[in-house]
Amino acid sequence: MLRVIITGTTGFVGEGVLLECLKSNKVEKVLSVSRKTTGRTHPKLEELIIPNFKDLKEKDPRLQGYNACFYCAGKSVSGLTEAEYRDITLETPLHFAKAIGDNNQMTFIYISGAGAGSDSWFMWARVKAEAENAFINMKGKQFKDCYAIRPGIMKASDDQKNVSTGLKILGSFGWLANLMNAGNPVGDVGKCLIQLCLESYEKSILECKDIDICAKKLVE
């Protein structure tokens, strides 16, 4: 059974992943680590409210006893300098990994984004790719297994609360994105993360098509 840490549960992706974990019979416990409360109650759910993840200590005792971590926290690059975006997208997640410490039972999954790449013209894409590589290189060292997920256009789950008007509009084209392998329902992203913890996948970086394959493999 999975005991899962999820960051960013008050954001769009994190909330969608949280809902799937709460529904799944493969998950027995969820620790939400976020800057504010989810406003949800559930027998599986515990919350750790941390305004600044960098305040977490190395090998923080509150993050021990888990065998999966889904790092969903993040922020759009809009309005941010490169230094600010690197801090949120790379340096803070790496600090969070240190706060977990060595855990040879854990599968750590970093939520990246479609279009990430070290050769991209876009700063955000290069920083995302750098973060992906940093976590993938922890496989077999700090953690049992590590993956990076690159979701594209995502359709919200019906019971999500943290969905902006822009995301609702974008998500309405989710059916088209799915046909073009350019997006996934956010619920399928959650199912994919659970499945990756149960059964390894041939790739360390998963694109939209891979997310769909993994989500369909999950048998509750």
List the helices and strands and how they pair.
Elements lengths: L1 E6 L4 H12 L3 E8 L10 E5 L18 E4 L10 H19 L2 E9 L11 H14 L6 E7 L3 E3 L9 H7 L2 H6 L3 E3 H13 L6 E2 L1 H10 L3
Parallel strand pairs: 1-2, 1-4, 2-3, 4-5, 5-6, 6-9, 7-8
Protein model, in words:
Helix content is 37%, strand content 21%. The chain has 220 residues and is α/β, with parallel strands linked by helices. It has a single domain (2-217), classed as Rossmann fold, CATH 3.40.50. The radius of gyration is 16 Å and the shape is globular.
Uncertain segments are: 167-181
CATH T-level topology: Rossmann fold
- The overall pLDDT average reads 90
* CATH class wording: Alpha Beta
Q: How would you describe the shape?
A: globular
Could you give the distance between the termini? 12 Å
Counting DSSP H or I runs of 4 or more residues, the number of helices is 7
CATH architecture heading: 3-Layer(aba) Sandwich
Our Rg estimate from Cα atoms comes to 16 Å
Structural class: alpha/beta
- How many structural units, i.e. domains? 1
Strand content: 15-25%
**Number of beta strands:** 9
